[in-house]
Amino acid sequence: TGAPIDGATPPVGAVGAADDGDLPDYTLAYRWLCRPGRGDDACVVDQSATRVAADGTQTRETWRADPAAPIDCFYVYPTISRDPTANSDLTAGPEERSVVAQQAARFGARCRVYVPLYRQVTLTALLASIGGASIGGDRDLAYRDVRAAWRAYLAHDNQGRGVVLIGHSQGAGHLTRLIKEEIDGQAVQAQQLVSALLLGTVVTVPDGADVGGTFTSVPLCRRSAQTGCVVTYASFRDGSPPPDSSS
């Protein structure tokens, strides 16, 4: 299955550097925010919560990660980096760790969670473009990092297990492209894809159909027990819906 994943702690000077040409080496454990079995990990956070019923009754829900979960989750985080550059480095800041705790860690009760660091287009670049002073931002670079992480995960960690793809905003956009290029119509779709949760992006299908738009053969989900399909939605302010097919 290739070289083992190793190196939970980066050597001095290694954090933020690219390891293989312009691609990070995702066989190095420190290229991941979350990996199963690590103590120092962005997903090792208490997710216990209080359930509030419709009648106001409150019940404490104790959360536990399941190290023997039968499937995996591969999560790509949204636009969150506050690095001053157009693309982020590969050093996890508090913002990356925080969003992983908020959006990904809880899935650990049902799956083994994998979260790669990647050189995303930053909030700095996004805010500059909104203000009309673009500083660039290479989305293709960010996508190539995500693709490299996915390929490393398949080669070294997956071992034929089912996997749920989870992405939000920019992360969902990169996973949409990954599905089109690396999964749709290929063996991994039939053998390993449990579902894809692509939140805050656009997945299109022809009117009256579940497949045939964004993806050739991966359908939208219709039932809670359905597998091999996509869940997608976007939120917006009440009274101000976005245009059709907008992101």
Explained architecture:
Helices cover 23% and strands 17% of the residues. It has 247 residues and is of the alpha/beta class. Strands 1-5-4-6-7-8 form a 6-stranded mixed beta sheet, sandwiched between helices. The protein has a two-stranded antiparallel sheet with strand order 2-3. The protein is globular and about 50 Å long. It is built from 5 helices and 8 strands. The termini are far apart. Strand 2 (49-52) and strand 3 (58-61) form a beta hairpin.
Which radius of gyration do the C-alpha atoms yield?
19 Å
Low-confidence stretches: 1-8, 11-20
Classify the helix fraction into a percent range.
10-25%
Q: Please write the string of helix (H) and strand (E) elements.
A: EEEEHEHHEHHEE
Question: What is the tally of helical segments?
Answer: 5
Largest beta sheet, briefly?
6 strands, mixed
Strand line-up of the largest beta sheet: 1-5-4-6-7-8
Short characterization:
The chain is of the alpha/beta class and about 250 residues long.
Keywords:
247 residues; alpha/beta; two-stranded antiparallel sheet; disordered N terminus
Task: Describe the protein's topology.
Elements: E1 32-34, E2 49-52, E3 58-61, E4 71-76, H1 94-103, E5 111-116, H2 123-130, H3 139-158, E6 163-168, H4 170-183, H5 187-191, E7 193-199, E8 229-233
Parallel strand pairs: 4-5, 4-6, 6-7, 7-8
Antiparallel strand pairs: 1-5, 2-3
Helix pairs in contact: 3-4
